[in-house]
Design the sequence.
């Protein structure tokens, strides 16, 4: 994905701002954070877990790219699995 989905927790919309504080989103972005639409939900722990078919959250990538890329982003970019130039950096994310 190159743009966040319409339910991305990183979106800078009133609805999404109620979900998580910015500090918590930065914690998500600093780690592998799968797009919730491609992950398995664990309702007991309210967590999303990556599967073999999961992709990284575009909102998290854009959020992180605006600051400093995390270790996994740098590795994936070096080996050709990720192209930061394709990200929609104009997307309305926090």
Sequence:
């Amino acid at each position: 994905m190159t743009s966040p989905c319409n339910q991305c927790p990183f979106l800078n919309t009133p609805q999404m701002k109620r979900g998580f504080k910015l500090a918590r989103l930065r914690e998500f972005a600093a780690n592998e954070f799968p797009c919730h639409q491609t992950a398995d939900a664990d309702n007991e722990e309210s967590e999303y877990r990556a599967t073999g078919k999961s992709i990284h959250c575009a909102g998290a990538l854009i959020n992180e790219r605006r600051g400093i890329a995390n270790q996994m982003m740098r590795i994936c970019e070096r080996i050709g699995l990720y192209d930061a130039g394709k990200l929609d950096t104009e997307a309305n994310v926090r």
The radius of gyration is 13 Å. The CA atoms of residues 3 and 88 lie 5 Å apart.
